[in-house]
Amino acid sequence: MNLITFASDTVIIDKMNKSVFTLMLFFLLAAAAQAQTQTEKLLRGLDEVLARRNQYTNEKFQHIQQLKSYLSTTRDPKMRLQIYQQLYDQYYVLNYDSAAACVNNSYRLAKKSETPTTVSCHGWRKPSFIP
Predict the structure, then answer these.
(1) Prediction pTM value
(2) How far is the C-alpha of 10 from the C-alpha of 105, rounded, in Å?
(3) Distance between CA atoms of 102 and 40, rounded to whole angstroms?
(4) DSSP string spanning the chain?
C-alpha cells in the first residue's frame, strides 16, 4: 500500500511539475513577446528621429548663424566669451575644428581683455594642440 501511495504521490508531483513548468514557460514567452514589442517600439522611434536628422542639423546651423550674428555685433568681452562658449557647445558635435577655433578665439579674447578672472571664470583651459 505504501508503494502504491508513493507511486500516486509521484504522479501528482509530476503533474504539479508539468503545471509549474508550463506556467513558467507561458510567463517567459509573454515576457519575451513584451520585450520584443518594446524593442520594436524603440526602434521605430529611433527611425523617426533619424529620418529627421537633416531638420535637426539645419536647426543647429541656424542657431549657430544667430550666435555668429550676435558675436559680430557685441563688443563686451564677457558677452563675447559667453557666445564663444555657446558656439563651442553647438559646434562640438558637428565640427570639432570649429569648436577648437572657438576655444582658441575665446582664449585670445580672455588674454587680451587683461582680466585674469575672465580666463578662470570662463572655465576653459587652452588645449595643448591649439597654438
Answers:
(1) 0.57
(2) 83
(3) 41
(4) -HHHHHHHHHHHHHHHHHHHHHHHHHHHHHHHHHHHHHHHHHHHHHHHHHHTHHHHHHHHHHHHHHHHHHHHH---HHHHHHHHHHHHHHHTTT-HHHHHHHHHHHHHHHHHTT-HHHHHHHT----TT--
pLDDT tens readout for residues 19-35: 777 777 777 877 777 77
Residue from 112, 111, 87, 110 nearest 100 by CA: 87
- Tens digits of residue pLDDT in 34-78: 777 778 888 888 899 889 999 999 999 999 999 999 999 999 988
Residue 129 clears pLDDT 60, i.e. is over it:
no
Cell numbers linked to 23: 506556467
pLDDT of 11 over the 60 cut: no
